[in-house]
Amino acid sequence: MSAVVSPIRKPLITGNKTYHQITEDLISPTEKTPTKEWVLGFVLSVAVLTFGVFCIIWTIWVGIGSWNLNRTINWSWDITNFVWWIGIGHAGTLISAILLLFRQKWRTGVNRAAEAMTIFAVMCASLFPLIHMGRIWLAPFILPYPNTRGPVWPNFNSPLLWDVFAISTYLTVSLLFWYTGLVPDFATVRDRAKGFRKKIYNTLSFGWTGSAKHWQRWESLSLVLAGLSTPLVLSVHTIVSFDFATSVIPGWHTTIFPPYFVAGAIFSGFAMVLTLMIITRKLLHLEDYITIEHIESMNKVILLTGTIVGVAYLTELFISWYSGYVYEQFAFFNRALGPYWWSYFGMMFCNVVAPQFFWKKSWRRNITLTFFLSIVVNIGMWFERFVIIATTLARDYLPSSWSLYSPTWVEIGIYVGTFGLFFTCYLIFARVAPVVAVAEIKHILKTGGNQYVGENAKRAHHHGDHESDHH
Amino acid sequence: MIQGSNKNIIFGLYNDEEDLLTAVRAAQKNHLEIYDVYSPFPVHGLDPALKLEESRLHQAGFIYGMLGTLTAFLGMTWVFVKDWPNIFGGKPYWSVPAFIPITFEMTVLFSAIGMTVTFYIINGLGPGVKNTYLHDRITDDKFCIAFDTGDVSTGEAEAFFSTTGASEVHSKTI
Predict the structure, then answer these.
(1) What is the pLDDT of residues A177-234, one digit of tens each?
(2) Is A1 at the interface with chain B, CB within 8 A?
(3) Which pLDDT value is given to residue A471?
(4) What are the pLDDT digits (tens) for A44-54?
(5) Complex ipTM > 0.90
(6) pLDDT of residue A8
(7) DSSP for residue A350
(8) H or E element, residue B12
(9) By the 8 A CB rule, do A394 and A404 touch?
(10) Distance of alpha carbon A351 from the chain centroid
(11) CATH number of B8-54+136-173
(12) What is A389-449 written as a DSSP string?
C-alpha cells in the first residue's frame, strides 16, 4: 500500500509534523498555566463586558429613552451592531461548511476557531434586537407557542419574525456542528489528563472511543451538517437583508440586497477571522498550522467579496439614477453627499479601495498589512450598516421630520460591551479547547504525500524524499 | 462499541494508518474476526476493508427534515387559515411564499438536531457515559486493532500482530 504522493501540492501543515507532535502542539496550550498575555486579555475583556452589562441593565431600567433614537431615526446603533455582528458570524460556517463541500482542505487549520467565533458573534448580535424590544421580559412573545392571550400568534409574514427563526436555527446548528467536531479532540485532551481534569474532559468528550463505526457516522454527520449549513448561512443574511428590502423606504427596498448582504457578511467575517487568527497563531505558536498559505487564501476571499460589495455599491447608485424615481435618487445623493457623507466615504474607502491591495501576491502574504487591513475592513463594514440604516432614515419623505443622530454613552457602552463578551468567550475557548481541530488536522497531514511515518515507509515510496527537496 | 461485558480483549497498536489498513485486510483474509478498530481520526479506506455498511444517518436526517418542513408549513397554515385568520396587506390568509423562509429554517433545525441526537444515541455516547478506553494513545497517534479472545485465541492474535508489524500488543478486560 503506498500513500498518495502529489508532486504538485504543497503540504498543508509545515514543519514535518508527526501525529504525536500535532497532539503536543495543539493540546498543550490547554494544559499549561495561562500566559501573562492571556490573563491580561481576560481581565480586560471581563472589565469591558461588565461595563456592557451595566449599560444593558441601565437600558432596561431607564428604558429605550436612554438611547438617542428619535421619531425619525428609530433604528440606528443597535441594528447596525446587530447586522455587523451577524455578518462576522458568517465566516465560521462558510469556512467549515462551504469549504468542506468544495473540498478545500486548508480550511482545517482555521475552521475550529472560526466556528467558535461564529457562535460568539451570533450571541453578541442577538443581544441587540432583544434589548431593543424595550420590555425584554416579553421577549418570549416572539415565539409561536399556545398561550392564554387569545391565543395571539406572531406574524409569520414578517421578515423580523423570519429573523428570529433564522438566527436561532443558525446558532443551534452552528453549536451542534462545532461541538460534534470538538468531541474527538476533547477525548484526546482526556487521555492526556489526570485526576479531576480527566473527569471533566471525560464528560465533555461524551465517552468518545474512536471506534471505526463511530468515525464513519461522525463523517457522515459532519458532511450532512455541512450540506445543511451551506444554504442556512446564505439564508440567514438574506433574511437579515429582508428586514430592509421588504420595507418601503427609498434606499432600502432594493432587490440587490440579499446577495449584496451575503457577500458583505463573508467579507467582514473573513476579516475578523484574520484579525483573530493572526493574534492566535502568534500567541499560541501555531505558525505551522495556520500558515501564510491560509492567510493568502483568506485574503483572496476578502479581495473577491470586497469587490463584489463594491460592485453592489455602484449598481445601487446606477439603479437609483436609472430608475428616474426622485425619492430613490435623493436617498443616494443624500447618502454620498448629505450630513453623513463621511461615513459613506469611510465605507467606500475601507470596503472597496482597501482590499484592492491584495491583488499583489507579496502583499497578500504580508502579515502586518493583512492584520491592518482586516481591521480596516471591519470598520468599513460597520460604516456600511450605519450608512444603510441611519443615513437613510435621517432624511425621510417629510423634510419637517428630518433629523440627525449621535449615540449616547449607553449605546456606545453596549456596543463596546459586546467586544467584552466576544473576547471573554473566545479567551475561555482558547484555554479549554484546542483552537485547531486536532483530529481533522491529522486527517489531512499526508495531503503533501511525503509524511508517511509507518513501518513500511521505506518500502512504500521513495518519492517522498524527492518531493520534500522541492520545498 | 465498548460495553462493560467482561470481555478479554487483546489489541495491537500500529504507528501509521497504512499499516493499519494492511493489517485489517490481512485479518479479513485469514478469517480472524476483528472486535473493533480504533483510530485518532477517520481513516479512509477502513470502512470497505472492515466491510462496514454505509451509515444510514443521512436517511434519518432526511426524515427529520421532512418532519420539520411539515411542522412549520402545516403549523403556519393552521394558525393563519383556521385558528386566527388575519389579513396582512390585502394578501390571502394562506400566503404561501411568505411561509417559505420559516419552513426552510425549521427543516434545517429539525434535521440537524434530530441527526445529532441520533448520532449520540446510536453510538452510545453522551455526557456522563463511562467507557473503558483501551489505550491512552489511541486518541493521539496509535491505530488499534482489537480482538475478542472469545473469537480469536491469544496465540493467533499475537502471531498476527507480529507478522503485520504492530508496535505494541496489550490485553485488557472490559
Answers:
(1) 999 999 999 999 999 988 899 999 999 999 999 999 999 999 999 999 989 998 999 9
(2) yes
(3) 39
(4) 999 999 999 99
(5) yes
(6) 56
(7) I
(8) strand B8-14
(9) yes
(10) 17
(11) 3.30.70
(12) IIIHHHS-S-GGG-------HHHHHHHHHHHHHHHHHHHHHHHHS-SS-HHHHHHHGGGGS
A28 vs B: CB within 8 A: no
pLDDT, tens digit, for every residue of A291-333?
888 899 899 999 999 999 999 999 999 999 999 999 999 999 9
**HSE toward the beta carbon, residue B74, CA cutoff 13 A:** 6
- How far apart, in whole angstroms, are the C-alpha atoms of residue B71 and residue B106? 8
| C-alpha dihedral, B19 to B25 to B26 to B32, nearest 10° | 120
Measure in Å the smallest separation between the Cα of B99 and chain A Cα atoms.
7
Domain boundaries for CATH 3.30.70 within chain B: 8-54+136-173
Closest CA in chain A for residue B91: A157
What is the pLDDT of chain A when averaged over all its residues? 87
A219 touches chain B (CB under 8 A): yes
CA distance A450 to chain B (A): 13
Q: How far apart are CA A451 and CA A7, in angstroms?
A: 13
Kindly list the distances between the CA atom of residue A451 and the CA atoms of A13, A188, A444, A462, B22, in Å, as whole numbers in the listed order: 10, 22, 11, 12, 18
Do A345 and A249 meet the contact criterion of CB atoms below 8 Å apart? no
List the single residue in B41, B46, B79 with the smallest CB-CB distance to A439: B41
Residues of chain B contacting A144 with CB distance shorter than 8 Å: 75, 79
Spatial separation of the C-alpha atoms in residues B128 and B150, rounded to whole Å: 29
Query: Is a pLDDT exceeding 80 seen at residue A10?
Result: no
Gap between the Cα atoms of B27 and B25, Å rounded: 5
Side-chain-side CA neighbours of A200 within 13 Å: the count stands at 9
Which residues of chain B make contact with A239, given a CB cutoff of 8 A? Answer: 101
